[in-house]
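Sequence in, structure out. Go.
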Amino acid sequence: MEAKPSEFEFLATVRRGRGKRTTVNVLAGSADDALRKLRDQGYDQVTLHTDDVSSLTLQQRKHAAILTPRDYLIIRDTPYDLGTAIAWIRAAFRKTWVTNLILALVLVQLRLTGWPWGILDTILLVAILFPILVGFMPVLATSPRRARYRQLLKDMHWGRHEKVLARLERLRGVPARELIRCKARALAGLGRVDEALALLEPLADGVATPRWYYHALRGQIYDAAQDLPASIREQETALALAPDNSTILIGLGRRVIWHERNAKRARGLLDQARTHAISDLQEPHVLLLEGLILLEENRPHDALVILDHAYRLFHARRHQPASFLPLDETRLAQARAHAALGDRARALKLYASVYPRLVANGSKLVDRLNHEIGTPQFN
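Output:
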């Protein structure tokens, strides 16, 4: 069953009572809709693995004959290319397990006879292990491309905008919308905001790309240009178009608390997000926002407990490029908490681990953080 233009794929691990847990793919118009559909099917335990943003590019059903929803989770959660290899090995063994079992029994029988190892034994062993070789073929095919994409995102994170533009010319196998996003952010980082916004215009039709996501992308452009009021305005527009979208609520809350220091507004956005579907990947973002709010409420000890938890979750997924920025944000928040608690040495160490990237991106937070924590000294 193919998704309609207004429907997207959502992965979830579900369970009825004490039954077996299984990972499924459900078509829905939003994360809230996906959660509602699964509840209606009688699942009382649901862990969403896809949010409203990641659902825009998920295409597991297109490869359902080979890769299951569970395979997709393995690829997502296992560091680097190992997850891809494991998922494809699983897929290969599902197709050949009967044949492999027969071959294994024949090989065991041959070994029990006491005959010396011969060419037939070798052929049987190779045939049994063939699914493992098949599993590594996609890794060999995609690993260079994935490495180039990851390096591009690292360059973007470090504010190396010229390098990003150069790498984009050679990058293949990445969705067109992601290429547009990366190029637009790089242009904005170089001060070419009008060009960046013009690049996004093909996504403004509200057909292939929802209107709320178009405005969220415009917000990212203004983030890269360090025009934070404009970024917040775009996120507000996105929220008006998708008021039940927890991703937008959390993202807007982070911007409000970092740049306006408005704890009351951020708390309201966080509380609202918690009334909607939140995926497992969003959980550390929720914790990060909670910790930032507690800092503004002058509760650094409570904040630090939550921020440490958020950091552990982000760090466990550090192989995912989407974790680069939140890891840095969490370190900054931890540094602020340690500074407020009087541990200036620990605060400066954490701040120093992020400081070069803040400076490289021209962050407007630097002066405030230097005053709050201290200016890192490098030898």
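Check: Residues 119-157 form the longest helix (39 residues). The two ends are 60 Å apart (CA to CA).
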